[in-house]
Amino acid sequence: MRRADFDADYAAIRSVRFDVFVDEQHVPASIEMDDRDPFCIHVLAFDDAAAVGTGRIDLEASGKIGRLAVLSSMRGQGVGIALMEFLHAIAKDNALDSVWCNAQGVAVPFYDRLGYRVTGDPFDEADIEHVRMERKL
Ligand SMILES: CC(C)(COP(=O)(O)OP(=O)(O)OC[C@H]1O[C@@H](n2cnc3c(N)ncnc32)[C@H](O)[C@@H]1OP(=O)(O)O)[C@@H](O)C(=O)NCCC(=O)NCCS
């Protein structure tokens, strides 16, 4: 696992996100890579040389964590938790005292296990139900 360089690692980040969000969850390809990407800190997880997971944190949006994705074949092995812990460490290094995300409804138990608590009402984004969750660092 390592911090990514958005330009140099663009293909790897895009590949994981397209597999998970576009192909699996049917998020429109046109909105998958967005205008916050160049401003976020990105992380990548690998299995040998292959990228299998990614996520990002937007420090300018009060530590918003997003685009967390692990290839379906690699789930349930702790990759998602490891990515989140790495993102929390980056937030702490940047003097944040909390982080937040818009969690997909199905992923609420995952974030709950990581210490996140729901702080808003559910809403739809890309036709998927989300809810705002926050965690103190
Ligand atoms: C959510 C996601 C990143 C988790 O990655 P992962 O590598 O499978 O997670 P981990 O193996 O670290 O799982 C950690 C724990 O969360 C649980 N968990 C993971 N995804 C879950 C889900 N969707 N619902 C309930 N529990 C979940 C696991 O069972 C595990 O608990 P356990 O150790 O007690 O068994 C992955 O499922 C994924 O990419 N999903 C599709 C994209 C997505 O929904 N992203 C989140 C957008 S908000």
% residues in beta strands: 25-35%
Strand-pairing-aware structural class: alpha+beta
Strand order of the largest sheet: 1-2-3-4
Gross morphology is: globular
Give the CATH class.
Alpha Beta
Please mark out the parts with pLDDT under 50 across 5 or more consecutive residues, or reply none. Answer: none
CATH superfamily: Gcn5-related N-acetyltransferase (GNAT)
What does the radius of gyration come to? 14 Å
Bound molecules: coenzyme A
Average pLDDT reading: 97
Query: How is the main sheet built?
Result: 4 strands, antiparallel
| CATH third-level topology | Aminopeptidase
- The ordered string of helix (H) and strand (E) elements is EHHEEEHEHEEE
Total domains: 1
Number of strands: 8
Labels describing this entry:
four-stranded antiparallel beta sheet; alpha+beta; binds coenzyme A; 29% helix; Aminopeptidase; 137 residues; 4 helices
